[in-house]
Design brief:
- The protein is α+β, with helices and mostly antiparallel strands.
- It folds into 3 domains: about 1-115; about 135-185, SH3 type barrels; about 195-289, Alpha-Beta Plaits (2-Layer Sandwich).
- About 60% of the residues lie in helices and about 20% in strands.
- The strands form 2 sheets. Strands 4-3-2-1-5 form a 5-stranded antiparallel β-sheet. A 3-stranded antiparallel β-sheet has the order 6-8-7.
- The longest helix has about 30 residues, at about 30-60.
- The chain starts with a helix and ends with a helix.
């Protein structure tokens, strides 16, 4: 309450001072206009202060401890930009040079946008991630050409635990948040964490293809059958392992490439494929002699 009283006194004193200034400059006949102008200036100052405090509060609320350096830099720029716009606006009100002030504000905004293009784009990308939620912490995603698990969503960058050939590499990629609005995003775990994968084997043309396909589908069903049956019930559609065959060449030697497709958890693709591959190898050795 004490602070509210002090601010009220300051507001009244500043209003009286500005009103007196305008009245002396323009005559007592313009006392009401001077009071209105002084009140408008003070209202703009209060609004600028609220905008600064609100913006800083939002930045700090939706950021992490690791963003402190970035937040300090951005909030400083944000404060200076608002106060510069306020100063130009007050000049326009005091000296009635609206056109020149608007031009100055436009040039200032253009200069700031050019100088801070990357940070602004990254901030826009962060806002898009926070509001539209194309991915969340722990999701398996591809952002542009980089794929991995979302480890952290910071103010300027999204941190991905990099995955190559469905194996975690231990590397961390710092993807600029601007790519959330400029690059294609593929989320493997949004809605469902199941994705299609396949195992492939090459066999001679003389092999018994029907038996090999049968053995491969048996192995796939043993490992992923339960998951796929649950998916069929949930989605009310037929989700079953599938076999494909195609002619391939190694040098000039033709082979038949047989693939078995199945659905598995996006976070366990490598482990699932390893189990299935081992089962297939042990069972088809007898089929190809």
């Amino acid at each position: 309450m004490r602070y509210i009283g002090v601010l009220s006194l300051i507001f009244l004193a500043a209003t009286a001072t500005l009103t007196g200034y305008f009245a002396r400059r323009e005559g007592l006949a313009s006392l009401q206009a001077a009071a209105d102008r002084a009140t408008l200036i003070l209202a703009l100052m209060v609004a600028a202060n609220i905008a600064i405090r609100g913006g800083v509060w939002l930045l700090r609320k939706y950021s992490t401890a690791k963003d402190k350096a970035e937040i300090k830099q951005i909030t400083s720029i944000y404060k200076y930009a608002i106060w510069l716009v306020l100063i130009f606006t007050i000049m326009a009100i005091l000296f009635k040079v609206i056109g020149a002030v608007i031009t100055s504000i436009g040039l200032l905004a253009a200069s700031l946008a050019l100088a801070l293009q990357r940070p602004i784009l990254n901030l826009a990308g962060w806002l898009s991630i926070v509001t539209k939620r194309p991915f969340r912490i722990g999701d398996r995603v591809d952002i542009g050409s980089v794929g991995g698990y979302v480890h952290e969503i910071a103010l300027m960058h999204t941190h991905l635990s990099v995955v190559e050939k469905e194996e975690q590499t231990g590397k961390v990629a710092y993807v600029p948040n601007e790519q959330a609005v400029t690059q294609l995003i593929i989320n493997y775990t949004r809605g469902s964490n199941l994705v299609w994968d396949q195992v492939r084997v090459r066999v001679p043309l003389s092999a018994d293809l029907a038996k090999i396909e049968k053995r491969m589908l048996e192995c796939v069903t043993e490992v992923t059958g339960k998951v796929m049956r649950e998916a069929s019930r949930k989605w009310k559609t037929d989700v079953t392992p599938q076999a494909r065959a195609a002619i391939d060449y190694v040098g000039n030697q033709p082979f038949v490439e047989i693939s078995a497709r199945y659905m598995a958890s996006a976070k366990e693709l490598a482990a699932t494929k390893t189990v299935i591959t081992k089962k297939i190898i042990s069972r088809i050795k007898k089929e190809i002699g």
